[in-house]
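Researcher: Let's continue the batch. This sequence belongs to ERCC4 domain-containing protein, and it's 327 residues. Same format as the previous ones, please.
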Amino acid sequence: MAPARQFLVARNPDASSSLPYLLRLPLGDGLVFRAKDTWPRTSAVYCHPVAASEWPAEPDLVEQVGVRSCARRGAAVDLVLDRSRENRSQLVWTRARGRQVVFWQSPRTRVKSRPDVRTPTARAAGVAQLEVVVDAHERYAYRFATQQVSVVRRALPCGDYATTHDGRLVASVERKSLPDLVSSLTSGRLALAVAELAALPRAAVVVEERYSQVFRQEHVRPAVVADGLAELQVRWPNVPVVFCDTRALAEEWTYRYLAAAYQWAAGEAAAATAVGVGDDAAAGPEAPEPSTAEVRAWARGAGIAVPDRGRLRPHVWVAWREAHGRA
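Model: Same format as before. Here are the structure tokens for ERCC4 domain-containing protein:
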């Protein structure tokens, strides 16, 4: 009989089986699995749990290693072997094609098997329906399709995406791809844009790339870009520059940043009164007004007669501002 704290790998005596190995883990009375391989080196290994009685009386051992730790944590078993390399692994119970399966994975194969990130769909900061203002000049704008967001297009004074509260612009995010970031940074346009963003209560710049790609530029010295970004953060520390790996992650970050800013603005007035300081959210500029087409559509829905073309009469704009708390 094998020692109690040994991890055993043996050849499967059943020649007709497509899983050529047997694993035995020292957990409880012993967990036995049929396995495709002896260790998850290049990919996760499929395992099939079987009764402990299937372990042969005289196994043809391939590997016998002492065990430092073998413990169940939820729907997984963490295994740590007493050796310097290939010592950590995990057997995970999951479902595939409607049935329960077990995969044996190591830290290396776990990273390889999950190259992408699934962004959450839970609403941010508890905001039931966040209104995101998209700059009218923004091309290929984020749609926020998986989130509880209503999108309106307006001419923003700065930034590409913003949120408002009580008729004030309280936060804005400037979106940059890496080529656009490098171009605007070296031309000086980004410094001017960040200076405008710094005048808002909350603002940020989000980059649709990871920071390491800054040092792979061919037409601009990477040190120039890195130094320029560092200078921006020193001059305007209240406007963070955030690097996200992909466009999808940049969109998710933008949504959650604006939702957090909206929630902050909602509680800012009460907090400012309690502490006895000024209301930062109220210091933001007025929210951008809608287009004539948008007000025209609202007026018709409100039963106000408006022409099909041309300018709207002043009383229509007054009615819209009163209805939206912007009188």
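Researcher: Any comment?
Model: The longest strand covers residues 61-72.
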